[in-house]
Amino acid sequence: MPADQLIAALDTDEGGLRHLRRLPPRAAVRTPWPEWVPEEVRTALEDTGITLPWPHQAEAATHAYEGRDTVIATGTASGKSLAYLLPVLTEAAADGPGRTLYLAPTKALAADQARAVAEFDVPGLIPAIVDGDTPFEHRQWAQRFANLVLSNPDLLHHSLLPRHRMWRSLLKDLKYVVVDECHVYRGVFGAHVALTLRRLLRLAEHYGASPTVIAASATAADPARSLSVLTGRPATEVTVDSSPSPGAAVALWEPVTYEIDGEPQQASTLSETARMLAQLVRRGVRTLAFVPSRRGAEIVAAEAKSRLGADPAAGRIAAYRAGYLREHRRDLEADLREGRLLGVATTNALELGIDVTGLDAVLLCGYPGRLASFWQQIGRAGRGDTEALAVMLAKDDPLDTYLVHHPEAIFDRPVETSVCDPSNPYVLAGHLCLAAEELPLKEADLASIPGSREVADQLVEQKLLRRRAGGRYYWVGSERPQVALRGSGPMGVDIAETSTGRLIGTIDAAASHRLVHRGALYLHQGESYLVDDLDLEEGLALVHAAKPPWTTSAQEITHLEVLSTRERLEMGDVALSLGEVEVTSCVISYQRRRLPSGEVIDTQQLDLPPQTLRTVAVWWTVDPASLEGLRDLAGSLHAAEHASIGLLPLIATCDRWDIGGLSTAAHMDTELPTVFVYDGHPGGAGFAEQAFRKWTGWLRATRDAIAGCECTAGCPSCIQSPKCGNGNEPLSKPGALVLLNRLLEAGEGPVTAAVFDQRPAAPEDDLWPGDF
Ligand SMILES: [Zn+2]
Ligand SMILES: [Zn+2]
């Protein structure tokens, strides 16, 4: 069914369509095979239907073949795999000694890639998957024989590099390292992967190899620079996409509003997504709905099913997310690929390159937080010559509301650069220890990472490294340090059924306090569970199935201390600062809220330990003398804080959930009315820093979002926050506008900038040796 008809079918009497953009179809351009591709490889590819490459594939492949680190950054389904496989297949067909290590961010993607590679009947190619599930004998076989090892950074970090002597035959002949979906490596996770890759390249060099890095990325700004940050070496980029596309109709949708007591209220974005998913599935339209939270994905799938009632199509809808057991996820992927499932509500776990082509439509339940993700998700739809349909439904928050009313901020803006900071001392210290344990560190190893020399010297003081004559650093600690690549803590929390012990899923330790505390209602695959007990020592939450007519929300208190100031902008009565802070937060209680009204039934106390975070924050202060006549100062600051957190993803590559905030009418360190916005990761992830660098654009969009909202007293589309630990009290919408206007005016006057020579405090003893 044509996209226009589908859009008409999705619309309601009230109308929610705010903008429709047509992405024109693109005809395929073909180019001859590069001369260096041997006949056997051409034939093998032609047998699978690939007659000639597209120019971007040939160009990227040739760069890599000639030994230049290369990143290919083009759209979804633009055949990036072929670009990195051409040199790999060529080496195999020539029976060359060169071997390839392919790294995907998820096991699922590596498995998918292995299946795709198996379709090419190229002589000499011996692929093998090696991940955490691979039995020892298979690993041994792969170490000796495979010339294409498909794996992930976690295996590299936890197994391959520590046991590099066993992997010596792979490392000494390592010719290519493929880094697939490399835009995923951003923030703190990106910093960990960057340092893991550098450890790999260092060991390969030690064994006499000098591999070329070939990376594939979603469309991104400055991809060569991003790859350079990951590897510490220069890189070339290929960004012009010459693959064909049927075009797409992209609709921006604002769920309809209705009035309660004169205040506009928005229909729930989750319900609207479920409604559209049900309508599309009923028409046989193969649809993927991207939902921002695991819990949301469960709700959308369950509601879409129930809307279809007795319709047999109801059985062809499912939810998909990380945290399910592996076998279950593989089954869902196969059902989706082979068309047994028509509609899937998923978290961004399915955003990456897993081959689920053949979809007609995608629904985005809310803006995914980054333009790169937006385009990646939109690109999932489209098969054959039929125009694809993509609908983004605005969530009830300031950023989404701003975007559906300012479509140019989506369609006419370059995709953001992905940021990571391998010199984050919290991340770097652990990897320096690991690297030294793998092979003594030389001065040259430290040269490419700013600040690494200082961190290494601190490790010497802590008696973890020893510096010998000649400038080498040796590992002298007793146990190999534990470094978690993903998440802040090494331990996830398992969720299991109390009566049977059956494992239901896992959750990261940081989120467990909020989501699986005793008494919490937890959703999984459409089923709801009540948490009987959370044992933090064991890392275990015990639950039983239950369907109460209420839900729960956790309440948190937060305390913030300024440790040091790096930079400050003085602008009359106003100042903006960037520096290190320590945030201590504690989930103290939870509320039970009646469904669907959200009315509070009661509040239950909890006895959970506080969680401490040392990180980087941006904060602004205002002289209270200049605010005379402002009635609700605390509410004004709080409202400005919420809205500014909501808009930060517009300028930094973060999610709202990556950042925290705190506002107070008189902070003990600044002694002034202050709003803090901080990175939610130890040591910072670069988001607060970007907020500081681009503060006028950030706060101007914040002001415009509040001013442009139709409500009178504030609503979730402007100043209310879904993650407020204080129940969204107090809040003042007019006061927030006064404050933000004051800041923006001050920024137009004289600005005195100061840079302080205070480097981040190094990780102290409390981080060693067990806690990282
Ligand atoms: Zn509002
Ligand atoms: Zn709040």
Task: Give the topology, please.
Blueprint: H1 3-10, E1 17-23, H2 39-47, H3 55-65, E2 70-73, H4 80-93, E3 99-103, H5 107-118, E4 127-129, H6 136-145, E5 148-151, H7 153-160, H8 168-172, E6 174-179, H9 187-206, E7 212-217, H10 223-231, E8 236-238, E9 248-253, E10 257-260, E11 263-266, H11 269-282, E12 287-290, H12 294-308, E13 317-320, H13 326-337, E14 343-346, E15 361-365, H14 371-378, E16 388-393, H15 398-405, H16 408-411, H17 425-438, H18 443-447, H19 452-461, E17 465-468, E18 472-475, E19 492-497, E20 503-508, H20 509-515, E21 521-524, E22 527-535, E23 540-545, E24 550-571, E25 574-594, E26 600-605, E27 611-622, H21 633-647, E28 659-664, E29 674-679, H22 687-693, H23 695-708, H24 733-748, E30 752-755
Parallel strand pairs: 2-7, 2-8, 3-5, 3-6, 4-5, 6-7, 9-16, 12-14, 12-15, 13-14, 15-16, 19-23
Antiparallel strand pairs: 1-9, 10-11, 17-18, 19-20, 21-22, 22-23, 24-25, 24-30, 25-26, 25-27, 27-29, 28-29
GO molecular function, one term: helicase activity
Protein name: DEAD/DEAH box helicase
InterPro entries: DEAD/DEAH_box_helicase_dom (IPR011545), Helicase_ATP-bd (IPR014001), Helicase_C-like (IPR001650), Helicase_put_actinobac (IPR022307), MZB (IPR018973), P-loop_NTPase (IPR027417)
Q: What does it look like?
A:
- The protein is 33% helix and 25% strand.
- The protein is an alpha/beta fold.
- The strands form 6 sheets. The protein has a 7-stranded mixed beta sheet with strand order 1-9-16-15-12-14-13, sandwiched between helices.
- β22 and β23 form a beta hairpin.
- The radius of gyration is 26 Å and the shape is globular.
- This is DEAD/DEAH box helicase.
